[in-house]
Specification:
The protein is of the alpha+beta class and about 575 residues long. It has three domains: about 160 residues, Immunoglobulin-like (Sandwich), CATH 2.60.40; about 210 residues; about 150 residues, Reverse transcriptase/Diguanylate cyclase domain (Alpha-Beta Plaits). Helices cover about 50% and strands about 20% of the residues. The chain contains 17 helices and 20 strands. Strands 1, 3, 4, 6, 8, 9 and 11 form a seven-stranded mixed β-sheet that branches. Helix 15 crosses helix 16. The radius of gyration is 42 Å and the shape is rod-shaped. About 0% of the residues have low confidence. It holds the Pfam family 7TMR-DISM_7TM. InterPro entries: 7TMR_DISM_rcpt_extracell_dom1, 7TMR_DISM_rcpt_extracell_dom2, Diguanylate_Cyclase, GGDEF_dom, Nucleotide_cyclase, Rev_trsase/Diguanyl_cyclase. This is Sensor domain-containing diguanylate cyclase. Keywords: Membrane, Transmembrane, Transmembrane helix. It comes from Paenibacillus aestuarii.
Length: about 575
Amino acid sequence: MNKRTMPTLFLFVIVLMASLLMAPSAKGSGILELNDSKNEYDLNPYTSVLEDKENRLVIYDLLHPDVAARFTDAGSQTINYGYSAYSHWAEFKVKNTSLKKDWLLEIAFPTLDSVDAYVLDGTNTVLQKHVGDDNAFDNREVKNRNLVLNLEIERGETLDVYLHFRTEGAAALPLKIIHPVHFAQKEQVSYLLLGANYGIIIILTIYNAFMAFFFRAKAYLYFALHSASGLIMFATLNGVAFEFLWSDAIWWNNRAIGFFMCVSHIMALLFIRNFLPPRSLSDRWKLFCNMFIVVEIFNILLMCVDVVLGLKLMLVKYLFFELLMIIPGVRALQANFRPARYYLCGWGIFAMTGIITTFTESGVIPMNSLTTFSAQIGSTLETLIVSWGLANQIKLIRKEKDRAVEQMNENRKLADSDFLTGLYNRRYIMNRFSSRMSEQMVFLILDIDHFKRINDTYGHLAGDNVLQQIASVLRQCFRHGDVIGRFGGEEFIVLMPDTFLDQARHRAEELLSAVCSVPIHIGDTHITCTVSIGITEWKSDSSDDFHAALRRADEALYEAKRLGRNRICVSSS
Protein backbone atom coordinates (compact mmCIF):
# COMPACT_ATOMS: atom_id res chain seq x y z
CA MET A 1 0.00 0.00 0.00
CA ASN A 2 1.30 3.47 -0.84
CA LYS A 3 2.55 5.34 2.23
CA ARG A 4 0.16 8.21 1.48
CA THR A 5 -2.91 6.02 1.05
CA MET A 6 -3.60 5.20 4.70
CA PRO A 7 -3.28 8.82 5.99
CA THR A 8 -5.56 9.99 3.16
CA LEU A 9 -8.28 7.49 4.11
CA PHE A 10 -8.09 8.38 7.77
CA LEU A 11 -8.21 12.07 6.85
CA PHE A 12 -11.54 11.33 5.14
CA VAL A 13 -12.89 9.88 8.40
CA ILE A 14 -11.60 12.86 10.39
CA VAL A 15 -13.34 15.27 8.00
CA LEU A 16 -16.50 13.18 8.33
CA MET A 17 -16.38 13.38 12.12
CA ALA A 18 -15.58 17.11 12.02
CA SER A 19 -18.70 17.68 9.95
CA LEU A 20 -20.74 16.46 12.90
CA LEU A 21 -19.63 19.46 14.92
CA MET A 22 -20.73 21.90 12.24
CA ALA A 23 -24.48 21.42 12.54
CA PRO A 24 -26.44 24.64 11.97
CA SER A 25 -28.00 26.40 14.92
CA ALA A 26 -31.65 25.90 15.79
CA LYS A 27 -34.32 28.06 14.27
CA GLY A 28 -37.87 28.63 15.45
CA SER A 29 -40.78 26.99 13.68
CA GLY A 30 -43.09 28.99 11.43
CA ILE A 31 -44.91 28.69 8.15
CA LEU A 32 -42.95 27.42 5.18
CA GLU A 33 -43.72 29.41 2.05
CA LEU A 34 -43.34 27.64 -1.30
CA ASN A 35 -42.30 29.91 -4.16
CA ASP A 36 -41.22 29.59 -7.79
CA SER A 37 -37.52 30.11 -7.07
CA LYS A 38 -36.95 26.77 -5.31
CA ASN A 39 -37.91 23.17 -5.93
CA GLU A 40 -36.81 21.63 -2.62
CA TYR A 41 -37.37 22.71 0.99
CA ASP A 42 -36.11 21.37 4.30
CA LEU A 43 -39.07 21.10 6.67
CA ASN A 44 -37.19 20.54 9.93
CA PRO A 45 -36.80 24.26 10.84
CA TYR A 46 -40.57 24.69 10.45
CA THR A 47 -41.62 21.59 12.37
CA SER A 48 -42.86 21.16 15.94
CA VAL A 49 -42.78 17.78 17.71
CA LEU A 50 -44.61 16.00 20.48
CA GLU A 51 -43.69 12.73 22.19
CA ASP A 52 -46.73 10.56 22.91
CA LYS A 53 -45.46 8.36 25.73
CA GLU A 54 -48.86 6.82 26.38
CA ASN A 55 -49.54 6.16 22.68
CA ARG A 56 -53.13 7.37 23.06
CA LEU A 57 -53.38 10.63 21.15
CA VAL A 58 -55.39 10.85 17.96
CA ILE A 59 -55.54 13.66 15.43
CA TYR A 60 -58.54 15.41 16.99
CA ASP A 61 -56.80 15.52 20.37
CA LEU A 62 -54.06 17.64 18.81
CA LEU A 63 -56.53 20.35 17.87
CA HIS A 64 -57.26 20.98 21.54
CA PRO A 65 -55.30 24.04 22.77
CA ASP A 66 -53.86 22.25 25.81
CA VAL A 67 -52.40 19.48 23.68
CA ALA A 68 -51.26 21.86 20.94
CA ALA A 69 -49.32 23.84 23.55
CA ARG A 70 -47.21 20.77 24.32
CA PHE A 71 -45.55 20.84 20.87
CA THR A 72 -41.94 22.09 20.87
CA ASP A 73 -39.79 23.41 18.05
CA ALA A 74 -37.72 20.71 16.39
CA GLY A 75 -34.98 23.17 15.36
CA SER A 76 -33.03 22.92 12.12
CA GLN A 77 -31.58 19.48 12.83
CA THR A 78 -33.29 16.32 11.65
CA ILE A 79 -35.92 15.01 14.06
CA ASN A 80 -34.40 11.92 15.69
CA TYR A 81 -35.56 10.18 18.87
CA GLY A 82 -33.19 7.24 18.49
CA TYR A 83 -34.46 3.81 19.51
CA SER A 84 -37.62 4.95 21.27
CA ALA A 85 -40.53 2.77 22.35
CA TYR A 86 -43.00 5.70 22.11
CA SER A 87 -44.94 7.10 19.21
CA HIS A 88 -44.36 10.70 18.13
CA TRP A 89 -46.15 13.54 16.41
CA ALA A 90 -44.76 16.19 14.11
CA GLU A 91 -46.60 19.26 12.85
CA PHE A 92 -45.78 21.88 10.24
CA LYS A 93 -47.62 24.50 8.18
CA VAL A 94 -46.95 25.15 4.54
CA LYS A 95 -48.25 27.97 2.33
CA ASN A 96 -48.03 27.87 -1.46
CA THR A 97 -47.21 31.19 -3.14
CA SER A 98 -45.94 29.56 -6.36
CA LEU A 99 -47.69 28.58 -9.55
CA LYS A 100 -46.96 24.91 -8.88
CA LYS A 101 -49.60 23.04 -6.91
CA ASP A 102 -48.23 19.44 -7.06
CA TRP A 103 -45.61 18.73 -4.43
CA LEU A 104 -44.17 15.69 -2.66
CA LEU A 105 -43.61 15.15 1.04
CA GLU A 106 -40.46 13.01 1.41
CA ILE A 107 -39.43 11.19 4.57
CA ALA A 108 -35.91 10.01 3.73
CA PHE A 109 -35.77 7.22 6.31
CA PRO A 110 -37.04 3.99 4.70
CA THR A 111 -37.02 1.83 7.85
CA LEU A 112 -39.85 3.64 9.64
CA ASP A 113 -42.62 1.15 10.32
CA SER A 114 -45.60 3.49 10.16
CA VAL A 115 -46.27 7.12 9.31
CA ASP A 116 -49.81 8.50 9.27
CA ALA A 117 -50.16 11.89 7.61
CA TYR A 118 -53.16 14.13 8.42
CA VAL A 119 -53.62 17.12 6.14
CA LEU A 120 -55.90 19.94 7.38
CA ASP A 121 -57.06 22.78 5.17
CA GLY A 122 -58.56 26.05 6.35
CA THR A 123 -61.87 24.35 7.22
CA ASN A 124 -60.16 21.68 9.40
CA THR A 125 -61.13 19.01 6.92
CA VAL A 126 -58.81 16.07 7.54
CA LEU A 127 -57.24 14.05 4.74
CA GLN A 128 -55.47 10.97 6.04
CA LYS A 129 -52.65 9.10 4.28
CA HIS A 130 -50.48 6.22 5.40
CA VAL A 131 -46.99 5.10 4.46
CA GLY A 132 -44.35 2.84 6.05
CA ASP A 133 -42.77 -0.57 5.80
CA ASP A 134 -45.63 -2.12 7.81
CA ASN A 135 -47.53 -2.21 4.52
CA ALA A 136 -46.69 -3.90 1.22
CA PHE A 137 -44.56 -1.80 -1.12
CA ASP A 138 -47.15 -1.95 -3.91
CA ASN A 139 -49.64 -0.13 -1.67
CA ARG A 140 -47.49 2.99 -1.53
CA GLU A 141 -48.86 6.13 -3.08
CA VAL A 142 -45.47 6.94 -4.62
CA LYS A 143 -43.35 3.94 -5.57
CA ASN A 144 -40.00 4.89 -4.07
CA ARG A 145 -37.50 3.39 -1.63
CA ASN A 146 -38.09 6.36 0.69
CA LEU A 147 -41.47 7.18 2.23
CA VAL A 148 -43.10 9.69 -0.13
CA LEU A 149 -46.60 11.18 -0.22
CA ASN A 150 -48.36 13.43 -2.71
CA LEU A 151 -49.18 16.88 -1.39
CA GLU A 152 -51.50 19.03 -3.47
CA ILE A 153 -51.58 22.72 -2.50
CA GLU A 154 -53.40 25.36 -4.45
CA ARG A 155 -51.79 28.75 -4.88
CA GLY A 156 -52.45 30.93 -1.83
CA GLU A 157 -53.57 27.90 0.21
CA THR A 158 -52.11 27.04 3.61
CA LEU A 159 -52.09 23.47 4.89
CA ASP A 160 -51.53 22.25 8.42
CA VAL A 161 -49.92 18.79 8.33
CA TYR A 162 -49.62 16.38 11.24
CA LEU A 163 -47.44 13.25 11.08
CA HIS A 164 -47.87 10.41 13.53
CA PHE A 165 -44.88 8.05 13.34
CA ARG A 166 -43.91 4.96 15.27
CA THR A 167 -41.37 2.24 14.65
CA GLU A 168 -39.55 -0.64 16.29
CA GLY A 169 -36.19 0.70 15.09
CA ALA A 170 -34.68 4.17 15.03
CA ALA A 171 -37.33 6.92 15.12
CA ALA A 172 -35.96 9.58 12.77
CA LEU A 173 -37.97 11.91 10.55
CA PRO A 174 -35.90 13.75 7.90
CA LEU A 175 -38.60 15.84 6.18
CA LYS A 176 -38.55 17.62 2.84
CA ILE A 177 -41.04 19.08 0.39
CA ILE A 178 -39.94 18.63 -3.20
CA HIS A 179 -41.41 19.33 -6.59
CA PRO A 180 -42.02 16.03 -8.48
CA VAL A 181 -39.79 16.89 -11.46
CA HIS A 182 -36.90 17.86 -9.23
CA PHE A 183 -37.52 14.76 -7.10
CA ALA A 184 -37.32 12.50 -10.17
CA GLN A 185 -34.04 14.09 -11.23
CA LYS A 186 -32.61 13.76 -7.73
CA GLU A 187 -33.67 10.13 -7.45
CA GLN A 188 -31.93 9.29 -10.72
CA VAL A 189 -28.66 10.48 -9.20
CA SER A 190 -29.47 8.73 -5.92
CA TYR A 191 -30.13 5.35 -7.55
CA LEU A 192 -27.05 5.79 -9.73
CA LEU A 193 -24.84 6.34 -6.68
CA LEU A 194 -26.41 3.43 -4.82
CA GLY A 195 -26.01 1.25 -7.91
CA ALA A 196 -22.34 2.19 -8.17
CA ASN A 197 -21.85 1.38 -4.50
CA TYR A 198 -23.63 -1.96 -4.79
CA GLY A 199 -21.76 -2.72 -8.02
CA ILE A 200 -18.37 -2.27 -6.36
CA ILE A 201 -19.33 -4.60 -3.51
CA ILE A 202 -20.84 -7.20 -5.87
CA ILE A 203 -17.76 -7.25 -8.11
CA LEU A 204 -15.39 -7.60 -5.16
CA THR A 205 -17.62 -10.26 -3.58
CA ILE A 206 -17.60 -12.32 -6.78
CA TYR A 207 -13.85 -11.80 -7.10
CA ASN A 208 -13.18 -13.00 -3.53
CA ALA A 209 -15.56 -15.95 -3.97
CA PHE A 210 -13.71 -16.93 -7.16
CA MET A 211 -10.36 -16.66 -5.36
CA ALA A 212 -11.75 -18.79 -2.53
CA PHE A 213 -12.55 -21.67 -4.90
CA PHE A 214 -9.41 -21.15 -6.99
CA PHE A 215 -7.01 -21.20 -4.02
CA ARG A 216 -9.18 -23.39 -1.77
CA ALA A 217 -8.80 -20.68 0.90
CA LYS A 218 -11.54 -20.22 3.51
CA ALA A 219 -10.47 -16.64 4.27
CA TYR A 220 -11.61 -15.43 0.84
CA LEU A 221 -14.93 -17.26 1.13
CA TYR A 222 -15.70 -15.85 4.58
CA PHE A 223 -14.81 -12.33 3.46
CA ALA A 224 -17.02 -12.71 0.38
CA LEU A 225 -19.91 -13.79 2.63
CA HIS A 226 -19.17 -10.91 5.01
CA SER A 227 -19.29 -8.44 2.12
CA ALA A 228 -22.46 -9.98 0.66
CA SER A 229 -24.22 -9.87 4.06
CA GLY A 230 -23.22 -6.25 4.55
CA LEU A 231 -24.45 -5.40 1.06
CA ILE A 232 -27.94 -6.84 1.70
CA MET A 233 -28.06 -5.15 5.12
CA PHE A 234 -27.36 -1.74 3.59
CA ALA A 235 -29.79 -2.42 0.74
CA THR A 236 -32.43 -3.01 3.41
CA LEU A 237 -31.46 0.18 5.24
CA ASN A 238 -31.70 2.10 1.95
CA GLY A 239 -35.16 0.69 1.23
CA VAL A 240 -33.90 -0.90 -1.99
CA ALA A 241 -34.35 -4.47 -0.76
CA PHE A 242 -37.98 -3.80 0.18
CA GLU A 243 -38.59 -2.22 -3.20
CA PHE A 244 -36.98 -4.90 -5.38
CA LEU A 245 -36.36 -8.10 -3.37
CA TRP A 246 -39.18 -8.72 -0.87
CA SER A 247 -41.83 -6.04 -1.38
CA ASP A 248 -44.55 -8.12 0.33
CA ALA A 249 -42.46 -9.66 3.15
CA ILE A 250 -43.24 -7.13 5.89
CA TRP A 251 -42.27 -9.36 8.84
CA TRP A 252 -38.97 -10.28 7.23
CA ASN A 253 -38.15 -6.72 6.16
CA ASN A 254 -38.35 -5.53 9.78
CA ARG A 255 -35.83 -8.18 10.81
CA ALA A 256 -33.55 -8.36 7.76
CA ILE A 257 -31.23 -5.57 8.94
CA GLY A 258 -30.50 -7.30 12.24
CA PHE A 259 -30.24 -10.74 10.63
CA PHE A 260 -27.68 -9.72 8.00
CA MET A 261 -25.73 -7.61 10.48
CA CYS A 262 -25.34 -10.65 12.74
CA VAL A 263 -24.40 -12.87 9.80
CA SER A 264 -21.89 -10.24 8.65
CA HIS A 265 -20.30 -10.23 12.12
CA ILE A 266 -20.07 -14.03 12.20
CA MET A 267 -18.43 -14.12 8.76
CA ALA A 268 -16.01 -11.36 9.80
CA LEU A 269 -14.91 -13.35 12.86
CA LEU A 270 -14.43 -16.50 10.79
CA PHE A 271 -12.54 -14.48 8.19
CA ILE A 272 -10.07 -13.07 10.69
CA ARG A 273 -9.44 -16.56 12.13
CA ASN A 274 -8.40 -17.77 8.69
CA PHE A 275 -6.70 -14.59 7.42
CA LEU A 276 -4.39 -13.55 10.24
CA PRO A 277 -1.50 -15.82 11.31
CA PRO A 278 -2.27 -18.19 14.21
CA ARG A 279 0.40 -16.58 16.40
CA SER A 280 -1.66 -13.37 16.52
CA LEU A 281 -4.77 -15.22 17.77
CA SER A 282 -4.44 -16.04 21.43
CA ASP A 283 -6.43 -18.84 23.07
CA ARG A 284 -8.36 -16.24 25.07
CA TRP A 285 -9.29 -14.36 21.90
CA LYS A 286 -10.47 -17.59 20.27
CA LEU A 287 -12.63 -18.28 23.31
CA PHE A 288 -14.21 -14.82 23.13
CA CYS A 289 -14.64 -15.28 19.39
CA ASN A 290 -16.56 -18.53 19.87
CA MET A 291 -18.69 -16.94 22.60
CA PHE A 292 -19.45 -13.95 20.38
CA ILE A 293 -20.55 -16.21 17.52
CA VAL A 294 -22.96 -17.91 19.94
CA VAL A 295 -24.25 -14.47 21.01
CA GLU A 296 -24.77 -13.48 17.37
CA ILE A 297 -26.80 -16.63 16.74
CA PHE A 298 -28.84 -15.90 19.89
CA ASN A 299 -29.35 -12.34 18.63
CA ILE A 300 -30.80 -13.68 15.37
CA LEU A 301 -33.25 -15.87 17.29
CA LEU A 302 -34.14 -12.97 19.57
CA MET A 303 -34.92 -10.77 16.55
CA CYS A 304 -37.55 -13.30 15.49
CA VAL A 305 -39.29 -12.94 18.85
CA ASP A 306 -38.72 -9.29 19.82
CA VAL A 307 -37.28 -6.88 17.26
CA VAL A 308 -36.78 -3.99 19.70
CA LEU A 309 -34.91 -6.14 22.21
CA GLY A 310 -32.84 -7.67 19.41
CA LEU A 311 -31.85 -4.21 18.12
CA LYS A 312 -30.86 -3.10 21.62
CA LEU A 313 -28.67 -6.18 22.03
CA MET A 314 -26.96 -5.35 18.73
CA LEU A 315 -26.17 -1.84 19.99
CA VAL A 316 -24.79 -3.17 23.29
CA LYS A 317 -22.40 -5.65 21.67
CA TYR A 318 -21.32 -3.45 18.77
CA LEU A 319 -18.32 -1.82 20.50
CA PHE A 320 -17.23 -5.18 21.94
CA PHE A 321 -17.34 -6.63 18.45
CA GLU A 322 -15.16 -3.84 17.02
CA LEU A 323 -12.62 -4.33 19.81
CA LEU A 324 -12.62 -8.07 19.21
CA MET A 325 -11.80 -7.46 15.54
CA ILE A 326 -9.05 -4.87 16.11
CA ILE A 327 -6.92 -6.61 18.77
CA PRO A 328 -5.63 -9.55 16.65
CA GLY A 329 -4.97 -7.18 13.76
CA VAL A 330 -2.67 -5.10 15.96
CA ARG A 331 -0.89 -8.23 17.16
CA ALA A 332 -0.46 -9.48 13.61
CA LEU A 333 1.03 -6.11 12.62
CA GLN A 334 3.45 -6.33 15.54
CA ALA A 335 4.43 -9.79 14.26
CA ASN A 336 5.37 -8.20 10.87
CA PHE A 337 2.47 -9.79 9.00
CA ARG A 338 2.30 -7.27 6.15
CA PRO A 339 -1.32 -7.88 5.01
CA ALA A 340 -2.41 -6.87 8.53
CA ARG A 341 -1.81 -3.24 7.49
CA TYR A 342 -4.59 -3.50 4.92
CA TYR A 343 -6.87 -5.26 7.37
CA LEU A 344 -6.37 -2.66 10.13
CA CYS A 345 -6.78 0.24 7.73
CA GLY A 346 -9.96 -1.16 6.16
CA TRP A 347 -11.55 -2.37 9.36
CA GLY A 348 -10.50 0.75 11.29
CA ILE A 349 -12.31 2.99 8.79
CA PHE A 350 -15.38 0.75 8.81
CA ALA A 351 -15.41 0.67 12.62
CA MET A 352 -15.24 4.48 12.94
CA THR A 353 -17.86 5.12 10.27
CA GLY A 354 -20.05 2.37 11.73
CA ILE A 355 -19.89 4.00 15.16
CA ILE A 356 -20.87 7.33 13.58
CA THR A 357 -23.94 5.79 11.92
CA THR A 358 -24.88 3.90 15.09
CA PHE A 359 -24.70 7.07 17.19
CA THR A 360 -26.62 8.91 14.48
CA GLU A 361 -29.50 6.45 14.50
CA SER A 362 -29.42 6.42 18.31
CA GLY A 363 -29.97 10.18 18.31
CA VAL A 364 -26.61 10.94 19.97
CA ILE A 365 -25.22 12.98 17.05
CA PRO A 366 -27.08 15.01 14.41
CA MET A 367 -28.44 13.24 11.36
CA ASN A 368 -27.48 14.33 7.86
CA SER A 369 -26.67 12.58 4.57
CA LEU A 370 -23.01 12.16 5.49
CA THR A 371 -23.58 10.67 8.94
CA THR A 372 -26.46 8.49 7.74
CA PHE A 373 -24.41 6.92 4.95
CA SER A 374 -21.03 6.97 6.69
CA ALA A 375 -21.15 3.25 7.58
CA GLN A 376 -22.07 2.37 4.01
CA ILE A 377 -19.17 4.44 2.68
CA GLY A 378 -16.88 2.87 5.28
CA SER A 379 -18.06 -0.62 4.33
CA THR A 380 -17.21 0.03 0.69
CA LEU A 381 -13.76 1.32 1.61
CA GLU A 382 -13.24 -1.65 3.91
CA THR A 383 -14.14 -4.10 1.14
CA LEU A 384 -11.80 -2.35 -1.30
CA ILE A 385 -8.86 -2.15 1.12
CA VAL A 386 -9.16 -5.66 2.56
CA SER A 387 -9.61 -7.11 -0.94
CA TRP A 388 -6.45 -5.22 -1.84
CA GLY A 389 -4.79 -6.85 1.17
CA LEU A 390 -6.02 -10.29 0.11
CA ALA A 391 -4.59 -9.69 -3.37
CA ASN A 392 -1.33 -8.62 -1.74
CA GLN A 393 -1.36 -11.84 0.26
CA ILE A 394 -1.73 -13.79 -2.99
CA LYS A 395 1.27 -11.90 -4.32
CA LEU A 396 3.27 -12.83 -1.22
CA ILE A 397 2.18 -16.47 -1.49
CA ARG A 398 3.24 -16.56 -5.14
CA LYS A 399 6.61 -15.03 -4.28
CA GLU A 400 7.10 -17.58 -1.52
CA LYS A 401 6.05 -20.35 -3.87
CA ASP A 402 8.44 -19.13 -6.56
CA ARG A 403 11.24 -18.97 -4.02
CA ALA A 404 10.39 -22.47 -2.80
CA VAL A 405 10.31 -23.82 -6.37
CA GLU A 406 13.58 -22.05 -7.13
CA GLN A 407 15.14 -23.48 -3.99
CA MET A 408 13.77 -26.93 -4.80
CA ASN A 409 15.18 -26.74 -8.33
CA GLU A 410 18.49 -25.54 -6.93
CA ASN A 411 18.56 -28.41 -4.44
CA ARG A 412 17.63 -30.85 -7.16
CA LYS A 413 20.33 -29.43 -9.39
CA LEU A 414 22.87 -29.77 -6.59
CA ALA A 415 21.74 -33.34 -5.96
CA ASP A 416 22.03 -34.21 -9.67
CA SER A 417 25.20 -32.26 -10.44
CA ASP A 418 28.91 -32.77 -9.97
CA PHE A 419 30.06 -29.98 -7.65
CA LEU A 420 33.37 -29.41 -9.47
CA THR A 421 32.38 -29.33 -13.15
CA GLY A 422 28.68 -28.54 -12.92
CA LEU A 423 27.89 -31.50 -15.19
CA TYR A 424 25.41 -34.21 -14.26
CA ASN A 425 26.59 -36.89 -11.86
CA ARG A 426 26.52 -40.69 -12.16
CA ARG A 427 23.16 -41.04 -10.32
CA TYR A 428 21.40 -38.60 -12.67
CA ILE A 429 22.82 -40.31 -15.76
CA MET A 430 21.51 -43.68 -14.59
CA ASN A 431 18.06 -42.21 -13.78
CA ARG A 432 17.81 -40.60 -17.22
CA PHE A 433 18.61 -43.89 -18.88
CA SER A 434 15.99 -45.65 -16.72
CA SER A 435 13.36 -43.14 -17.85
CA ARG A 436 13.84 -44.45 -21.44
CA MET A 437 14.58 -41.04 -22.86
CA SER A 438 14.87 -42.56 -26.35
CA GLU A 439 14.32 -45.80 -28.28
CA GLN A 440 17.90 -45.64 -29.50
CA MET A 441 20.96 -43.89 -28.13
CA VAL A 442 24.73 -43.89 -28.16
CA PHE A 443 26.93 -44.19 -25.07
CA LEU A 444 30.11 -42.15 -25.32
CA ILE A 445 32.74 -42.49 -22.57
CA LEU A 446 35.94 -40.45 -22.53
CA ASP A 447 38.95 -40.38 -20.25
CA ILE A 448 41.63 -37.66 -19.96
CA ASP A 449 44.96 -39.09 -21.05
CA HIS A 450 47.76 -39.11 -18.48
CA PHE A 451 45.65 -37.26 -15.93
CA LYS A 452 47.60 -38.73 -12.99
CA ARG A 453 50.79 -37.22 -14.45
CA ILE A 454 49.11 -33.77 -14.48
CA ASN A 455 48.14 -34.13 -10.81
CA ASP A 456 51.59 -35.33 -9.84
CA THR A 457 53.38 -32.59 -11.80
CA TYR A 458 51.19 -29.54 -11.22
CA GLY A 459 49.11 -30.48 -8.21
CA HIS A 460 45.47 -31.37 -7.64
CA LEU A 461 44.26 -27.77 -8.11
CA ALA A 462 45.69 -27.85 -11.60
CA GLY A 463 43.95 -31.19 -12.13
CA ASP A 464 40.65 -29.64 -11.06
CA ASN A 465 41.22 -26.82 -13.56
CA VAL A 466 41.76 -29.36 -16.32
CA LEU A 467 38.51 -31.16 -15.43
CA GLN A 468 36.60 -27.87 -15.57
CA GLN A 469 38.10 -26.92 -18.94
CA ILE A 470 37.25 -30.32 -20.42
CA ALA A 471 33.68 -29.97 -19.08
CA SER A 472 33.41 -26.61 -20.85
CA VAL A 473 34.57 -28.13 -24.14
CA LEU A 474 32.03 -30.94 -23.77
CA ARG A 475 29.18 -28.42 -23.40
CA GLN A 476 30.24 -26.69 -26.60
CA CYS A 477 30.62 -29.83 -28.71
CA PHE A 478 27.36 -31.63 -27.96
CA ARG A 479 23.70 -30.88 -28.57
CA HIS A 480 21.23 -29.44 -26.10
CA GLY A 481 19.39 -32.75 -25.82
CA ASP A 482 22.54 -34.78 -25.10
CA VAL A 483 23.10 -35.70 -21.44
CA ILE A 484 26.66 -34.90 -20.38
CA GLY A 485 28.03 -36.03 -17.03
CA ARG A 486 31.16 -36.72 -15.00
CA PHE A 487 31.20 -40.37 -14.21
CA GLY A 488 34.02 -40.30 -11.69
CA GLY A 489 37.64 -39.15 -11.49
CA GLU A 490 38.76 -38.01 -14.93
CA GLU A 491 36.09 -40.03 -16.72
CA PHE A 492 33.11 -38.42 -18.51
CA ILE A 493 30.03 -39.90 -20.18
CA VAL A 494 27.61 -38.61 -22.79
CA LEU A 495 24.20 -40.11 -23.61
CA MET A 496 23.18 -39.16 -27.13
CA PRO A 497 19.48 -39.96 -27.77
CA ASP A 498 18.17 -40.66 -31.29
CA THR A 499 21.71 -40.87 -32.63
CA PHE A 500 23.45 -43.39 -34.92
CA LEU A 501 27.04 -44.55 -34.51
CA ASP A 502 28.39 -42.61 -37.49
CA GLN A 503 26.82 -39.40 -36.13
CA ALA A 504 28.29 -40.04 -32.68
CA ARG A 505 31.72 -40.78 -34.19
CA HIS A 506 31.61 -37.49 -36.07
CA ARG A 507 30.88 -35.64 -32.82
CA ALA A 508 33.65 -37.53 -31.05
CA GLU A 509 36.16 -36.49 -33.75
CA GLU A 510 35.16 -32.87 -33.30
CA LEU A 511 35.65 -33.32 -29.56
CA LEU A 512 39.18 -34.75 -30.00
CA SER A 513 40.11 -31.79 -32.15
CA ALA A 514 38.54 -29.26 -29.77
CA VAL A 515 40.31 -30.69 -26.68
CA CYS A 516 43.71 -30.60 -28.39
CA SER A 517 43.23 -27.02 -29.57
CA VAL A 518 42.27 -25.58 -26.18
CA PRO A 519 45.29 -24.48 -24.14
CA ILE A 520 44.89 -24.97 -20.40
CA HIS A 521 46.47 -22.31 -18.20
CA ILE A 522 48.23 -23.53 -15.06
CA GLY A 523 49.87 -20.51 -13.56
CA ASP A 524 52.35 -19.24 -16.17
CA THR A 525 52.39 -22.63 -17.89
CA HIS A 526 50.18 -23.62 -20.82
CA ILE A 527 49.53 -27.28 -21.46
CA THR A 528 47.31 -29.22 -23.83
CA CYS A 529 45.43 -32.39 -23.08
CA THR A 530 44.09 -35.26 -25.08
CA VAL A 531 41.27 -37.67 -24.42
CA SER A 532 40.46 -41.26 -25.35
CA ILE A 533 36.89 -42.09 -26.32
CA GLY A 534 34.88 -45.29 -26.32
CA ILE A 535 31.53 -45.50 -28.13
CA THR A 536 28.74 -48.06 -28.17
CA GLU A 537 25.15 -48.16 -29.35
CA TRP A 538 22.06 -49.16 -27.36
CA LYS A 539 18.58 -49.99 -28.66
CA SER A 540 15.39 -50.58 -26.73
CA ASP A 541 14.68 -53.89 -28.44
CA SER A 542 17.93 -55.39 -27.13
CA SER A 543 18.30 -57.25 -23.85
CA ASP A 544 21.06 -54.90 -22.68
CA ASP A 545 20.61 -52.84 -19.58
CA PHE A 546 22.55 -49.74 -18.59
CA HIS A 547 25.46 -51.65 -17.10
CA ALA A 548 25.85 -53.90 -20.14
CA ALA A 549 25.96 -50.91 -22.53
CA LEU A 550 28.33 -49.08 -20.16
CA ARG A 551 30.62 -52.12 -20.05
CA ARG A 552 30.87 -52.22 -23.85
CA ALA A 553 31.64 -48.51 -24.04
CA ASP A 554 34.22 -48.93 -21.30
CA GLU A 555 35.88 -51.78 -23.20
CA ALA A 556 36.04 -49.58 -26.30
CA LEU A 557 37.65 -46.81 -24.16
CA TYR A 558 40.34 -49.12 -22.88
CA GLU A 559 40.95 -50.32 -26.41
CA ALA A 560 41.52 -46.69 -27.45
CA LYS A 561 44.02 -46.28 -24.61
CA ARG A 562 45.78 -49.52 -25.54
CA LEU A 563 46.16 -48.36 -29.13
CA GLY A 564 47.97 -45.19 -28.06
CA ARG A 565 45.35 -42.78 -26.61
CA ASN A 566 43.93 -39.62 -28.23
CA ARG A 567 41.67 -41.71 -30.39
CA ILE A 568 38.21 -43.20 -30.76
CA CYS A 569 37.16 -46.82 -30.56
CA VAL A 570 33.69 -48.11 -31.34
CA SER A 571 32.19 -51.21 -29.80
CA SER A 572 29.49 -53.00 -31.76
CA SER A 573 26.22 -53.83 -30.02
